[in-house]
Write a structure and sequence with these properties.
The structure holds 2 protein chains of 2 kinds. Chain A contains 9 helices and 18 strands. The radius of gyration of chain A is 22 Å and the shape is elongated. Chain A has helices at 20-36, 51-59, 78-92, 105-116, 228-238, 246-250, 281-284, 304-307, 316-333, and strands at residues 7-11, 13-14, 17-18, 40-46, 64-69, 96-100, 120-124, 126-129, 136-142, 147-153, 159-163, 180-184, 195-202, 214-218, 241-244, 271-275, 292-297, 310-314. Chain B contains 6 helices and 15 strands. The longest helix of chain B is centred in the C-terminal third of the chain and has 17 residues, at 245-261. The relative contact order of chain B is 0.17. Classes of the chains: A alpha/beta, B alpha/beta. The interface between A and B is large, with 85 and 86 residues. Bound molecules: flavin-adenine dinucleotide and adenosine monophosphate (AMP). Flavin-adenine dinucleotide sits between chains A (144-145, 219-221, 245-248, 259-264, 276-278, 280, 282-283, 286, 296-299, 302, 315-317) and B (13-14, 121).
Chain lengths: 334, 265
């Protein structure tokens, strides 16, 4: 086991451009590498990957970037990607490998984990290094998000985990930071695999929630779908994207892309404002890591207040219109 | 055409509580159901059999009582069910679960499709589908939202990804995991229920499956749960009372000031 060293993250690309999840993983990886006293490597599979983007991985914290390029790695196809990644793991023996819980990471990682016989923990919210043993402590919500479980991969290496996109902010960029870029030749027998990609149908509407710096979430306290505009106006005054709890989405007051939480989106905005949101464990799982949390709720004991930085105890139908006005005034006067 | 559908029996999650003294789950009195997301896999399998002929075999690894889930699958329209049950399977993580399921699938014989749910609502990992595929050395397509066609030894599917749908063609046999968009699960029929009641659910154990010792259960699982706990919520909340008109005004003013202090306005 001592042959296995270093913290690795699986970077992702699309059309040759490195995706944001890679930078989020670098933030996680940097922390682990520091605690473990080792270095951080980003591994990337693709084709014709933008050179500046590789350099950016270094500027955002990678000490080393290992990239393997081949036409069969241009789009994610599980068989060639798994063969390539397994080969790289055998060669470099990372001690820890973290990927995003994306459609790619959630498919590739379990496929590879079986192939190389090691453990994998999905959707971790907290990753830490155990003092003394140096083992990776992988904490994730389980049983419908009601409880957290800490999981270890004791005897197999690498220790593998996925983390949800947007559950951390991207690692900051330090221009001029130095590191090494290693280009690997794909193995000659890299299989094209038994799946062919025939095309792609992009989504029509955008989902601005995931990228928003400010999000306002509405909960069942709003009482009726017709009242949503009240909260929409608050969101507009803050330049925020509108999100919702599952109860609101289930009632058809807003569509599924608005759902924040365990079975919806995870967001990490600079500011989250919850209006008439109780703060169930499942909802918190999707917004707890927001930098600043403000809540409006008429129940002083609502759990949302336990994660809030500022809590307004009051009737949202009274508070929100006044608050919206004050924010507008404040913005126009600055 | 033979389609195999692995289904999991799970506790009705919203009812599970935690014994905070011991850190263990209180499962007593909690109803066991078919993993809701597996109903979509069953529905797709039945639809494909209705179109193409053949049989749908549902399999489940779990304690003896998981047989009731397989009967439910038969009541919906699966042709038969096989229960994989053995004390040696208890405590399996996704690696060991995928191993047992893949060996059972091999034993069933020639097949065209394995269709899994997106994830189980208890473990919630979504790792077993790709895991089975890896053990069987088969391709896997996850997050399938639509099957466009199955013919000439291939299937064409739409795969839901972050920003759209991939159109993929896979050669058979292939493992699919499906999302809710795929179909609307049907309810069991009365005739189906009668068939399910009358039918036999064979039980396969480690010996019958010829499984290697130490590859299943806790000892065959690379991962281990070392702690279970209730999340601690911790931020110091500045609480403002806005219970009357004046309180509302003051709270709104303070909120604006707070946002300014943090450079959020
Ligand atoms: C497996 C599973 C997955 C789930 N996934 C998600 C998920 O992804 N996202 C999610 O959000 N939920 C999810 N849930 C549901 C979750 O458990 C809660 O039911 C849900 O989050 C509650 O939504 P809510 O806060 O809008 O409603 P409620 O819990 O009903 O809260 C409404 C709040 O509004 C307040 N209120 C009422 N009237 C007023 C008023 N006039 N002024 C101010 N405040 C008022 C009340 O005090 C209350 O706190 C999931 C559940 C399960 C079992
Ligand atoms: N014990 C099991 N028995 C049968 N199928 C299972 C079992 N566990 C998981 N599966 C299948 O794998 C899918 C994903 O489960 P999971 O990886 O546990 O989230 C489920 O939707 C089922 O189709």
């Amino acid at each position: 086991m001592t042959a296995f060293q270093g913290v690795w993250i699986l970077a992702e690309q699309s059309a040759g451009r490195v995706l944001r999840i890679s930078h989020e993983l670098l933030a996680r990886g940097r922390e682990l590498a520091q605690k473990r006293g080792t270095d951080l490597t980003a591994v990337l599979l693709g084709w014709n990957v933008c050179r500046e983007d590789l350099q950016e991985l270094i500027e955002r914290g990678a000490d080393r970037v290992v990239v393997m390029e081949s036409p069969v790695l241009e789009h994610f196809l599980v068989e060639p990607a798994a063969a390539a990644l397994a080969e790289i793991i055998r060669q470099y023996k990372p001690e820890i490998l973290i990927a995003g819980a994306t459609s790619t990471g959630r498919t590739l990682m379990p496929y590879v984990a079986v192939g190389i016989h090691t453990g994998l923990t999905a959707d971790c919210t907290v990753l830490d290094i155990e003092a003394g043993t140096g083992n990776l402590l992988q904490t994730r919500p389980t049983i419908g998000g009601n409880v957290l479980a800490t999981i270890k991969t004791q005897n197999d290496r690498p220790q593998m985990a996925t983390v949800r996109p947007r559950s951390t902010r991207p690692a900051p960029r330090d221009p001029g930071r130095r590191g090494e870029i290693i280009r690997l030749q794909p193995p000659e027998d890299l299989p094209p695999g038994r799946i062919k990609r025939l095309g792609f149908v992009p989504d029509q509407d955008e989902h601005p929630l995931a990228d928003a710096d400010v999000a306002v979430a509405v909960g069942r306290g709003i009482k009726k779908g017709e009242n949503i505009p009240l909260v929409q106006r608050l969101a507009n005054s803050l330049g925020a994207a509108l999100g919702a709890t599952r109860d609101v989405v289930d009632r058809g007051w807003l569509s599924y892309p608005h759902q924040i939480g365990l079975s919806g989106q995870t967001i990490t905005p600079k500011l989250y404002v919850g209006v008439g949101v109780s703060g169930s464990i499942q909802h918190l799982a999707g917004m707890q890591t927001s930098e600043t949390i403000v809540a409006v709720n008429n129940d002083p004991d609502a759990p949302i207040f336990q994660v809030a930085d500022l809590g307004i105890v009051g009737d949202l139908f009274e508070v929100v219109p006044v608050l919206t006005e004050r924010i507008k005034q404040s913005r126009s006067s600055s | 055409m033979r389609i195999i559908v692995p289904i999991k029996q799970v506790p009705e999650t919203s009812a599970v509580r935690l014994d905070e003294q011991t850190g263990t789950m209180i499962r007593e009195g909690v109803e066991a159901i078919v993993n809701p997301l597996d109903l979509y896999a069953i529905e797709l399998a039945i639809q494909l059999r209705e179109q193409l002929g053949g049989e749908v075999v549902s399999i489940s690894m779990g304690p003896p009582k998981a047989a009731t889930s397989l009967r439910e699958a038969v009541a919906m329209g699966c042709d038969r069910g096989v229960l994989l049950s053995d004390k040696a399977f208890a405590g399996s993580d996704t690696w060991a679960t995928s191993y047992v399921l893949s060996e059972a699938i091999r034993r069933i014989g020639v097949f065209d499709l394995v269709i899994c749910g997106e994830r189980a609502t208890d473990g919630d990992t979504g790792q077993v589908g790709p895991g089975i595929a890896a053990f069987l050395n088969l391709p896997v397509v996850t997050y399938v939202a639509k099957v466009d066609s199955v013919d000439n030894g291939t299937c064409r599917v739409r795969r839901r990804v972050e920003d759209g749908y991939e159109l993929l063609e896979a050669s058979l046999p292939v493992v699919l995991t499906v999302v809710k968009e795929i179909a609307n699960p049907r309810l069991p029929t009365l005739r189906g229920k009668q068939r399910a009641k009358a039918g036999d659910i064979p039980v396969w154990d480690a010996e019958l499956l010829n499984l290697q010792a130490g590859q299943t259960g806790l000892s065959g699982s690379p991962t281990r749960v070392v702690k279970i706990f209730k999340p601690k919520l911790a931020r110091r909340c500045e609480k403002l009372n806005a219970l009357d008109e004046q309180g509302v005004e003051l709270a709104a003013d303070r909120c604006v000031e707070f946002l300014r202090e943090r450079n959020l306005l």
